[in-house]
Specification:
The protein has 374 residues and is of the alpha+beta class. It has 3 domains: 8-199, no CATH class; 208-310, no CATH class; 338-373. The protein has 13 helices and 7 strands.
């Protein structure tokens, strides 16, 4: 069966969750996490977090309205505070903004805590960096990443939750990964995604349809990029002003010159990056993407040339539930009811206390009661 894939779009909401609310978010997040870990284990917990529908529901349960951009950053922040690696067997690395750049250091701490091998740690750091680069460069949907959370367990399995922001629309977009389902980093790597907003002009080099464009991109780069200059021109022209350029063949995809992701022009400096990559002779598209300096413009340029010259068209299709429980931090759809919220925390705690005392029958009775209520 084909898994659900897509992207979560969320409008930007300013401000922060109140301290009293975030404190309760952390406690309720811990209770829910411990219940899942007790019943299913850490692998299943990572699977659930990698499902954007379940993650969205979790965010709603702990105190968010369904469409707030803060569901990602605050829920991941609550997870990071709630989970103790020694107690729960899970580490939450990275985070929002500057915290995301600390992800490699956070992952390295797992070597001592979980006794993971150096190779395993290196693989996870590589996965963290490459996933961010793919969602920023190979999926060019106009959303720039600003949040990256990397969750790993004591066996070295991992899940990634990262979010980007469209500076013009002020909407956020969330991307989910799961290690056990990543067969190839550069082809359909995301776990599952949902969306209520589709971008019309989104280059998706991870789509299966883009396989030919990926292969030709590698061939173009390995065949000396000097011969690609004729397709582009910069403010300091590399070719005659009267010469046609690649944009002329793709007017529907032409974006404003200032656009940070979709601008087509390549400068002399950027061609130097291509030349350095050519000297390394990447063996495949994943290696090409992972090379230093291989950003959105170079990836887009190679993709468009592969279509224009060789007829291998990349995918331009945007790779794209909700519930309310305790209300939202901004009072919509209604204010958080503190008494109800605290009762939810206590109920989960009571169930877990009984379970940890090996009174599993009572725990299962609560589960059966829940099914009857639903």
């Amino acid at each position: 069966m084909q898994s659900r894939r897509g992207v979560v779009n969320l409008p930007l909401h300013g401000g922060h969750a109140p301290k009293w609310l975030f404190h309760r978010m952390v406690k309720l997040t811990k209770g829910i996490t411990e219940a899942i870990l007790y019943e299913y284990g850490s692998d299943e917990f990572l699977r659930r977090l990698s499902d954007p529908y379940w993650f969205q529901a979790l965010s709603c349960v702990i105190g968010f309205d369904w469409h707030s951009s803060g569901t990602t950053t605050t829920t991941c922040g609550a997870l990071k505070m709630a989970l103790n690696p020694e107690e729960h067997g899970i580490i939450v690395a990275g985070g929002k903004g500057r915290a995301s750049r600390k992800t490699p250091a956070d992952i390295e701490k797992a070597a001592d805590i979980f006794s993971l091998s150096t190779n395993k740690i290196d693989d996870m750091i590589y996965s963290s960096k490459l996933s961010a680069k793919i969602d920023n460069s190979c999926i060019q949907d106009g959303y720039n990443l600003y949040h990256h959370s990397f969750l790993l367990n004591e066996k070295g399995e991992w899940a990634i939750i990262q979010q980007g922001m469209n500076a013009e629309t002020k909407y956020a977009r969330r991307y989910h990964w799961l290690s056990e389902n990543v067969m190839e980093f550069v082809e359909e790597p995301h776990q599952g995604i949902c969306c209520d907003r589709v971008e019309k002009e989104s280059l998706d080099m991870t789509a299966q349809k883009s396989d030919g464009a990926r292969r030709i991109s590698v061939d173009l780069l390995c065949d000396n990029p000097e011969h690609l200059k004729k397709y582009f021109k910069d403010k300091t022209p590399l070719i005659s002003e009267s010469q046609s350029q690649l944009d002329d063949y793709y007017p529907e995809f032409k974006m404003p010159r200032h656009h940070p992701v979709l601008d087509m022009d390549l400068s002399n400096r950027e061609f130097e990056v291509l030349k350095r990559a050519w000297e390394l002779q990447p063996s495949g598209y994943e290696e090409l993407v992972s090379l230093e300096g291989m950003g959105p413009k170079k990836i887009r340029a190679l993709a468009l040339i592969s279509d224009l010259v060789y007829g291998s068209e990349p995918s331009w299709k945007d790779p794209v539930k909700y519930s309310f429980t305790h209300g939202g931090k901004d009072g919509y759809p209604y204010p958080v009811d503190r008494e109800v919220y605290d009762n939810s925390i206590q109920t989960l705690k009571d169930v877990l206390i009984e379970a940890k005392l090996d009174k599993k029958d009572k725990y299962n009775a609560v589960k059966r009661l829940e099914k009857l209520i639903i």
